[in-house]
Amino acid sequence: MHITSKAPEAGPLETSRLGPMQLGVIALCALIALLDGFDTQAIGYVAPNIAEEWGIKPSAFGPIFSAGLFGLMAGAFAIGPLADKVGRRKVILFSTAAFGLAALATALAETMQHLLLLRFLTGIGLGAVLPNIIALTSEYAPARLRATAVMVMFCGFPLGSTIGGLISAPLMEAYSWRAVFIMGGVAPLALLPLLLFSLPESVRLLAVRGGTEQQIGRILKRISPDASVAEFIASVHAEKTGAQEGLTVPKLFADGRATSTILLWVIFFMSLLVYYFLVNWLPTLIKASGLPLSLAIICTATLNLGGVVGAIVLARLLDRFSPFLILGLTYAATAVFVAMVAYGTTSAGFLMVAAALAGFGAAGGQIGSNALAATLYPTAIRATGVGWALGVGRIGAITGPLIAGALLAEDWSPKAIILSAAIPSLAASAAAFLMGATRRTIPPERLDRAISTSEVAEPAPAFHHGAAP
Length: 469
Fold this sequence. Notes:
Blueprint: H1 12-15, H2 20-54, H3 62-79, H4 83-86, H5 88-106, H6 112-140, H7 146-154, H8 156-174, H9 178-198, H10 203-208, H11 213-223, H12 229-235, H13 258-288, H14 293-320, H15 323-343, H16 348-376, H17 382-409, H18 414-420, H19 422-439, H20 444-450, E1 459-460, E2 463-464
Antiparallel strand pairs: 1-2
Helix pairs in contact: 2-6, 2-7, 2-8, 2-9, 3-6, 3-17, 5-6, 5-9, 6-7, 6-16, 6-17, 7-14, 7-16, 8-14, 13-14, 13-16, 13-17, 13-18, 13-19, 14-16, 15-16, 15-18, 15-19, 16-17
């Protein structure tokens, strides 16, 4: 039995082709995601060089890694959702400037205390921008291509991490570790003028928040010249119930969304736990298994690259079939791929393939979850919904490396530690399947209020089940 509900009136954003205006928004958001991925991973690539220059143990970088993740969590929880009040564009511009300046300042760090503070501040900007580029991409994409647009855009994040791995070594060899942060700071600051003049506000948010017909019309006509501004505003009128003043976080649990919100948080927590578990500890654990460090670093880069491929493949599947089924199967497969990594440390070739597959499932599945989160909430609370899901996920991101470190301290073997990451993968899989089952049982009268005008209710908002795009 599928979810049923009254079909909302289709607006021009739902039926339009993916034109130059929308492609431009997606491309700009992808560039931001790429720089976000570069700056998020930069500290991991330069830590050994800093430790050698400053004469400290590599283990001392645990708090530094955690500070960046705490910043990501704080940004996602506190600043990201502000966009539902003040606009996506303003928060994106502010956050991009913030993480660019903080990354640039990191190049001047002289002590561990300075480094810890600056990584926290960088993380706040990085964490605040993510839910808003996801929300903005979702709100400009046609319904039939929404998952594809969000996931292709977010491929920039693991791609940025991969690029960071490829260029960090030559930069440090030619200059020093500070050059990595200089690049990580200059690039987003250089992008700011382009964002300032080219990145539009969400036209859907403008309509929900009472923007003028002139403001809305200027953007809408660039998407669909024949579109009626009045009809568009009417098509999103139902969403204005979510734009009432007051705290937006409680609205994540209103109108039949409570179960979906909780299960989404479980997925994000478990998914990011696995991803950061692998990204932070895979090089150390592979080296501890007797393989060269150079191979361990290449495996980690391959894991991120596998995430890019996974996102592209899963994007089309999520737009064609039930996202809960696809994500449930993806996370279940990730558990198998993690086991392959655990048992593949005796063969370099097999290990590379296993790492790529683990990245396909772990990173690709997380990007798919981002797309799912963007469709579960109406426009007025979308950034809050995505931001809080990412914030909860960051708690998992902090927990994963801590668990691995604790297991290593208890003298677990590298194989057993890697294998333990299969457990949260299975938990994420179960949560995705359960979300699909519970959403099919929501009473239609509650779902009528829970979905937005941009969302399709068969079997889940904004994803077309079994239909060609």
